[in-house]
Specification:
The protein is of the alpha+beta class. The chain is built from 1 helix and 6 strands, in the order αββββββ. It has a 3-stranded antiparallel β-sheet, with no helix packed on it.
Length: 144
C-alpha cells in the first residue's frame, strides 16, 4: 500500500501548472528576443546603402582600366561609387568616383561601366563601396 507522501496532491498539480506556464512564458520571451535581434541585425546589414557587384573588368592600357559593375539601390536614390584599380603588387594604381545614377532613377538595379585612369598597369578593377550621397574619392563610403 502506498504511503500518503507518495500520493499526488492538489498542491503538486498547481506546482506543475506553474512550471508549465513559466516555461511557456520564457519560450515566448526568448522567441521575441531572437526576433528583435534578427530585425536589428537585418536593418544594420541592409541600411539602405546601395551595393555593387563587379561583373568584369578590362585592362585597356598601362594607364586605364574599364570596370563593369551592377548596383542594387532603392528606387529614386542617387548612386555614387568608388572605383579602384590595383597593380600587380596589390598597391592602388587608380581611384575615382563613378556617378552611376546621379539623378536617382526609378530602377533598382543599374549596370555601369567606368573608365578609370591609372598611374600604372592595373591587374584588377574593383568597387570599394557605394553611397546614395555624393562622396569624395578619398573616403571609404562604407564607413560614415
Amino acid at each position: 500500500m502506498p504511503h500518503a507522501a507518495d500520493l499526488p496532491t492538489r498542491y503538486d498539480q498547481r506546482s506543475r501548472l506553474g512550471q508549465r506556464a513559466l516555461a511557456v512564458l520564457l519560450s515566448i520571451a526568448f522567441v521575441a528576443l531572437m526576433a528583435a535581434i534578427l530585425v536589428t541585425l537585418t536593418r544594420k546589414a541592409f541600411n539602405g546603402n546601395p551595393t555593387a557587384t563587379v561583373t568584369g573588368f578590362s585592362v585597356v592600357s598601362d594607364r586605364e582600366v574599364a570596370v563593369r559593375f551592377a548596383v542594387r539601390k532603392k528606387a529614386g536614390d542617387r548612386v555614387f561609387c568608388i572605383v579602384r584599380a590595383r597593380g600587380r603588387d596589390g598597391s592602388e594604381v587608380g581611384r575615382d568616383v563613378a556617378e552611376v545614377d546621379p539623378v536617382g532613377g526609378r530602377a533598382r538595379d543599374v549596370r555601369s561601366e567606368f573608365q578609370l585612369a591609372t598611374t600604372g598597369r592595373a591587374v584588377t578593377g574593383e568597387v570599394q563601396g557605394c553611397s546614395s550621397r555624393p562622396i569624395s574619392k578619398s573616403v571609404d563610403p562604407n564607413h560614415h
